[in-house]
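DATA SHEET
Item: assembly model
Revision: 1
Owner: S.N.
Input lines:
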Amino acid sequence: MQSFIEEEEKTYEVVPFTWPKGYKADGVYVGLRKNPEKKDMGWLYSEVPAQAAGTYTTNQFQAAPTKLTKQTINKEHLLQGIVMNTANANSVTGKQGMIDALQMQAWAAEKMAVDSDLVGVASTGVIGEPLPMNLIKKGVDKLQLLDNFYVTEAVLTTDKHTKTISTQIELDGQTVTISGFCKGSGMIHPKMATMLGFVVTDAKIADGALQGMLSQEVDSTFNQITVDGDTSTNDMVVTMANGLAGNEPIENDDSANAQTFLNAYNAVLTQLAQDIAADGEGSTKLVEVNVENAANHADAQKVAKAVVGSNLVKAAIFGEDANWGRIIAAIGQTNAQVDVDHTSVWLNDLPLVTDSHSADFDEAVMKQTLSENKITILVDLHSGNATGQAWGCDLTYNYVRINATYRS
Amino acid sequence: MQSFIEEEEKTYEVVPFTWPKGYKADGVYVGLRKNPEKKDMGWLYSEVPAQAAGTYTTNQFQAAPTKLTKQTINKEHLLQGIVMNTANANSVTGKQGMIDALQMQAWAAEKMAVDSDLVGVASTGVIGEPLPMNLIKKGVDKLQLLDNFYVTEAVLTTDKHTKTISTQIELDGQTVTISGFCKGSGMIHPKMATMLGFVVTDAKIADGALQGMLSQEVDSTFNQITVDGDTSTNDMVVTMANGLAGNEPIENDDSANAQTFLNAYNAVLTQLAQDIAADGEGSTKLVEVNVENAANHADAQKVAKAVVGSNLVKAAIFGEDANWGRIIAAIGQTNAQVDVDHTSVWLNDLPLVTDSHSADFDEAVMKQTLSENKITILVDLHSGNATGQAWGCDLTYNYVRINATYRS
């Protein structure tokens, strides 16, 4: 997996994927998916109760497991485990859906030997079908507390591969590990939340600080990706911090320790968000849009997301066609402050539009750079000095194929 | 061309396409398009100055011809002609773009022997390339004041066919004709305007009433269609009413004459809007979404447009898959008031979701109805008694193909 993180800003080390101190996990196949080669149920466990924080979909049809996890975390902001399944979202399943989510939570808690109020539940897959509880029971019976990474496979749907990252920092002489994994790859247009994302750390976080850290970092990472403009009913990101690294408690403030932690934490969220965008359904290219000289940060974020979310821009990138009028049209659709006579655009650092006129570019050179598997679009709005960033992917025949036949 | 207008509400007659009294037109090929079989420049003319109204794109990068037509109409709300071209949008072309639009207007006005201030200009096609003025001049030289309908071809881009409709009503013993034509078929997500649409009538409209009539009818017609969520830089709808039918002036009020006129006028706009949706780039099906029992009209319109605009819903319809979770997810993404426990959905009148649970439907029957070329989705929000409507199309391989290779 290619790393898209810039080298120069690192105050942390990206290490091979590993669980932080005190975490166990497992993943199994129980028959929820058709392919027995793929895991479809898993869990994650901390030896001690961990501080927990979450962000959740704003879709009004919030799925039962998403609601339940939110309620659970909001009780004491503590979790000791999360149980997960794919292939069935347990969403729009009425009262039975909540009963099933509670049952799944209870079974997992019993097997982990912890209180139900310390266990989150996450489901993803088809909406509107009842959760097959016999398979869920079978899964809990099979799951063990191990050191493997199968849980990172057990949450995937149309994803082509797992999405994982671990970073390490030194705090107070202790090694602190932050590990995250997530799934995409359609119905991706997070609003104050995202698809399933899990970030666990052994860092000791000061009481009450974790939720603020998660919320602020999600805004500039998961909330800035889009695959298809559709917001799922099951989106959530959950973070657990069990404190076993032994560092002094980290506040959400300007201290050196907090900044070091947040830097590494942001890198984990950014990498996972980019991984989702790069592996968007049917995608062949990751698209990153950077906006600069915006009137304010909100404008910059809005324009970045509008460009990366435009079907026409996405199809042109798939076709490797430097059709910049579509980028300009996408910018102009927003209500962001735009200097319509002095907007400039670069594509992989090559000038494409200069002061709202076609830059004198060589079509062959553009075609060549568009054949790369990461496309970076830089937009200068000439309206201030704020910046923003968003990620997405191209729109391809395969996106249509996957979504025309999703249930078959 | 199939008519989607319901039979029972007609207070007007749909007649074979014709120009209303006093209108002349023409369309020619000058080399803007590659295929010499297709017209690429045209115009429309009224023997007497006609009252005029327009609605225009809200894209911040408004094209020169769109700006110029808006300025021209806003002077005295009168037009006598409109000159049009396809294959080049004269958009994001800087100062030269406005100079070229003014020149095109002046040449057409001179040939029509009317004042420049009475001539609108409309361009569509690729963004960002200078208008080839030698070809525009050649076109104006060739255009004549005739009774043919070639102008309805001369505005098309990726459209598969022309989009035209004529209705007739009787007012004060006089026959009044309302004729409209338009083009699609990508970058369609009108906001307070639409792609190019032209509606001409010989009705006599009271001074100052036409703009209000157009604006109110566009809101529930053109503004409720989406093909791909992208708003063009060149969108506009222009209406001309030259009064030659001889009826008494129609006010925009509750009078019988006004209601008869507005009914027929709305039918023209509705048919054109549906034609654009049905002929959306790559589409194989027209999708109509009707929302009922919403808390208010704005909520109903918002939900209708969210469902019809969802890439996932569109791809599922292309795949003829009754994947209703995507419809529910699209509804829940809006901030409309939704009774999340009592939302129901019908597909071509067959129950799909009842009170937020899967209706006990037969997959084979659903598959059969999804093979039709018009798909109607009815959503009951259980939150009030307001209704709304929107139109779109499915998302297909051909949409991707067309837009991956648009400039080639």
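QC remark: Chain A touches chain B through 66 residues (CB under 8 Å).
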